[in-house]
Design goal:
Strand order of the largest sheet: 3-2-1-4-5-7-6
InterPro entries: Methyltransf_25, SAM-dependent_MTases_sf
Number of domains: 1
Protein name: Methyltransferase domain-containing protein
GO molecular function: methyltransferase activity
Order of helices and strands: HHEHEHEEHEHHEHHE
Helix content: 25-40%
Organism: Rudanella paleaurantiibacter
CATH architecture: 3-Layer(aba) Sandwich
Bound molecules: S-adenosylmethionine
Largest sheet: 7 strands, mixed
Radius of gyration: 18 Å
CATH class: Alpha Beta
Strand content: 15-25%
Number of strands: 7
Keywords: Methyltransferase, S-adenosyl-L-methionine, Transferase
C-alpha cells in the first residue's frame, strides 16, 4: 500500500478518535501492562507503525523509548510530524536493520495489521526476525485481519492480500521461541454488522457501483454518537468476554522464552 497516500492521510486524521484504533491501542497497552505492570522504561518497537497512532498513544502514557519502522515514506513523514522516532524500512529487509541505540533487542515488539502484505515464506522470515528482536521473556503483540468472509473493498483499498485464522500464524512459530499467551478474535458483537457492510461492498464492486481501481476503505470517522456507541459496545465485550471465537480481527500476544535452555517460558 506504499503508494496510497490518501489512505495514510485518512489514517493520520482519524486514528486517535476512531473506535477501532482506540480499542486496538487499548488492547496493546493492556498486554504490555499485564506483562510489565506500571514499568514504562521499556524499549518498544512498532514494526509497520503506519502514521504513528499507537506510538503517540504510548508516548502519552509515559513510554518514551519507542521506535517505529514503516516502508512508506508518506507514513514516516506523518510520524515525524508527530515528533516520533521512526525510520523508513521495508520489513522484508528487517534482518539488516540496526537501531541507532546500542541494543538490538526490545521488551515489546508490536506488529499490527502488517502480516497481510506477506506471503507465507516472507511471513515466516518476518516472524523469526521480529522474534529475534524481542528480549528473552519479552512480547510480540500482533493484531491481524481475520476470516476470509470479512473480505471487502476495504481489503482492496489498503492492498491487503490475505486474512488469517490463529492456526495460520501459529504454524509459523516453531523455531521462533515464541509461545502464544493470549489470543482472541474481535469484535464478536459487531461481526454481523461488519459482515453486512463487507458483503454490501462486494455487491457494489460486482455491480460496478464502486470502482475496483479506487475502492473505499473503512477508515473514516462515523458520527460522534455512533463512534462512541461502537467503542462502548466493544469495550463491554472485551470486559465480559475476554476471548471470543469470531470477529474481523485476530489479536495475539506471544511471549519469548526466558532463556535459551528453557523450552517453555
Ligand atoms: C494497515 S496499516 C497498519 C499500520 C499500523 N500498524 C496500525 O495499526 O495502524 C499497514 C502498514 O504496514 C506498512 N507495510 C506494509 N508492508 C510493509 C513492508 N513490507 N515493510 C514495511 N512496512 C510495510 C504500510 O506502509 C502500512 O503503514
Amino acid at each position: 500500500m506504499f503508494d496510497k497516500k490518501a489512505e495514510y492521510e485518512k489514517m493520520f486524521r482519524v486514528e486517535q478518535q476512531l473506535w477501532w484504533y482506540r480499542i486496538l491501542h487499548g488492547r496493546v497497552l493492556a498486554a504490555i501492562q499485564k506483562r510489565y505492570g506500571t514499568r514504562n522504561d521499556l524499549r518498544i518497537l512498532d514494526a509497520g507503525c503506519g502514521t504513528g497512532g499507537l506510538l503517540s498513544y504510548l508516548r502519552e502514557r509515559g513510554y518514551t523509548q519507542t521506535q517505529g519502522l514503516d516502508g512508506s515514506a508518506d507514513a514516516v513523514a506523518f510520524c515525524h510530524e508527530r515528533g516520533l522516532r521512526v525510520e523508513q524500512l521495508n520489513l522484508l529487509y528487517l534482518d539488516g536493520w540496526q537501531p541507532e541505540t546500542s541494543t538490538e533487542a526490545f521488551d515489546v515488539v508490536v506488529c499490527d495489521d502488517v502480516f497481510c502484505y506477506f506471503n507465507d515464506e516472507q511471513l515466516g522470515k518476518l516472524i523469526s526476525e521480529l522474534a529475534r528482536r524481542v528480549k528473552p521473556g519479552g512480547l510480540l503483540v500482533t493484531n491481524n485481519n481475520a476470516f476470509d468472509v470479512f473480505r471487502g473493498s476495504h481489503d482492496l483499498a489498503v492492498g491487503s492480500t490475505r486474512r488469517f485464522v490463529q492456526a495460520d500464524i501459529e504454524r509459523l512459530l516453531p523455531g521462533s521461541r515464541l509461545h502464544t499467551r493470549y489470543t482472541t478474535y474481535w469484535s464478536l458483537l459487531l461481526s454481523p454488522l461488519i459482515l453486512a457492510v463487507r458483503q454490501w461492498q462486494n455487491w457494489q464492486l460486482r455491480r460496478g457501483w464502486q470502482s475496483a481501481e479506487q475502492p473505499h476503505s473503512d477508515v473514516y470517522l462515523p458520527p460522534n454518537w455512533l463512534n462512541t456507541l461502537f467503542y462502548a459496545l466493544v469495550r463491554t465485550e472485551e470486559t465480559v468476554l475476554p476471548r471470543t471465537p469470531f470477529g474481523s480481527s485476530l489479536f495475539m500476544v506471544l511471549k519469548k522464552e526466558e532463556n535459551e535452555s528453557r523450552q517453555k517460558a
